[in-house]
TrEMBL record:
Key words, A-Z: DNA-binding, Transcription, Transcription regulation
GO cellular component: cytosol
Transmembrane intervals: none
GO BP of this protein: regulation of DNA-templated transcription; response to amino acid
Protein name: ArsR family transcriptional regulator
Amino acid sequence: MKIDDTDRKILVELQTDAAQSLDDIARKVGSSKTPVWNRIRKMKEAGIIGAQVVQLDADALGFEACFFVLIRTSEHDATWQRAFLKALQDRPEVQEAHRLAGDIDYILKVRVKNARAYDAFYQALIAEVKVHNVTALLSMEEIKSTTALPL
């Protein structure tokens, strides 16, 4: 699907606040409610717009520790990769996981309540899959966090 300037404006509004009314979005993008609704529906059908979720405040809920976990492995076969993927998918602490080019094979963003909770996560992970090296970096301060794309 090809998107135009109006679609981009709608997407910017949805990234800012997906809970705002169609009337508000339409007014902000200079359109009316029905065409905006139709555009949103088409972008959902095309997969441009995915699940709409609520962002929670991790600190307010007691998840005060954010670790970036660097993983090196000597295993690269399909069986290991499936086991690793399953281990990550089974752990809600893992907010993000990326396979990397370079010296580090994977980076994980892990959100837990404290260092003890991270250790429990770590122990469970290495008990399930073999890794060569794990380095955990504790985020001291979140400087910027966004899910918005620069449209």
